[in-house]
Specification:
By secondary structure, the chain is mostly helical. It contains 16 helices and no strands. Helix 12 crosses helix 14 (about 320-330). The structure holds heme C (2 copies).
Amino acid sequence: MKKSRTQILLTLWKWSAIILTIVVVSMVLFKREKPVSKKQTPTIIKDSKDPMPKQVKAEIDPETLMTPEALVKAGEKLIFSTEGPQLNDMGRFPVGKGQCAFCHLFAEEQKLTRCPDLRTIETRSHERIKEARYAAFTKQYADAPDPVSQLKPKATTGGEYLIESLYCPNCYVVEGFGKEGSHDQESPMPIVSEMPMLLNDYEMVAVAAYLQAMDTPDDYSKVTARADWERYFNRKLEVGEDKRPVVQASENLTKTALLEDPPEVIIEKMGCFVCHKIPTVPIATTGLIGPVLTMKTKAIERINSPEYLSAVEMNRARAVTPREYVLESILDPAAFVVPGFGDGDGMPTDYGRKFTVGALNKLVNFLLTLDENSGKNPDGTEPSKPGSASKRD
Ligand code: HEC
Ligand code: HEC
């Protein structure tokens, strides 16, 4: 009895040990196998290509992104980068990919007056096309299209006017808002479908849809932007992809600064060296038209200068950080003119159209590393200080 009991216990012990080992081993094997099976999953899907896209299509029906409400929501994000944007302490809205809120007024309390007020633009859009000025622009471009956009003014509805404003700012220039010296014939508004904003067609329609719904919250009955776009361009609108990272294939690609370009090459391609001395950049040692670009130290100085603060007061300048200051200097040079550089040729005003986002960010980052001690620039001191002798001739 005793013996058989020990034997039974022993056998039990043996078996449980064996079972335990099997369990442990199989668990280890199972765990190891998991990534293998994971790896296989995509292969299986890849092999059966047909069912996949169908599933995806069924899930995201482009039509659901085309409803007035969806377009308006997308437009809001493109303009303000967020839903339900709030003004900050300085009376500014967050700025989205379209950069519209950088220039335009969208709310009473917003501090900005340099560009047309976009409140009630839906109503105005219908009036615009009936104006004698609109007819005059149509006549002006009757023979040849606007050389910048290659389009002609031809809007027949308010919605088409809004679409046209985005693709062809020169097609109609709001009175009093034209480029300086152009007698309101040339628009300072960048074409937002081009660099650096690069809104795609869907995004252009979304932005226009937002403008149409802006004055009637939660009422989308005026949102006709998609039909307006399709009539204007005589083709069907498709949901586009974010094309910002992709450089537009254009004939002057060689002149387009790319993300891969080192800062020196970006500076060369964009022509900054023509006017600016830039420490450490061999090509940029002679420019005298603009200040030396030692932005690591200067950007902060500028933002805190009484001149800048008064430009902020006047709702022209808006940078709060050194980075914003440098970006603003490049994209919106009229926001603030460095004291001593007031008259004559200043910064080109069309960089907003010429930069890729990647190259611009890279250049700004680079400029923010430069101070008076970078490289050996005898002029690295303050050529731009008010009252200093080194004003432009
Ligand atoms: C750098 C400043 C700037 C940016 C950025 C900008 N605009 Fe403009 N916009 C202007 C100026 C200046 C005008 C007036 C000149 C003209 O009519 O083209 C204008 C005109 C317009 C008009 C015509 C207004 C009217 O009363 O007829 C519309 C609509 C418009 N912009 C929408 C937009 C939208 C939407 C965006 C963003 C996707 C945008 N703008 C981005 C400066 C800008
Ligand atoms: C045609 C001449 C010209 C070209 C080209 C030019 N700039 Fe300027 N830039 C100026 C002038 C003049 C000023 C000073 C007036 C002003 O603030 O607008 C200036 C000011 C600046 C400032 C502000 C400097 C400060 O001390 O606060 C920055 C930053 C700047 N430019 C960057 C650039 C960059 C980057 C490029 C090339 C992408 C460039 N500029 C191309 C003429 C030019």
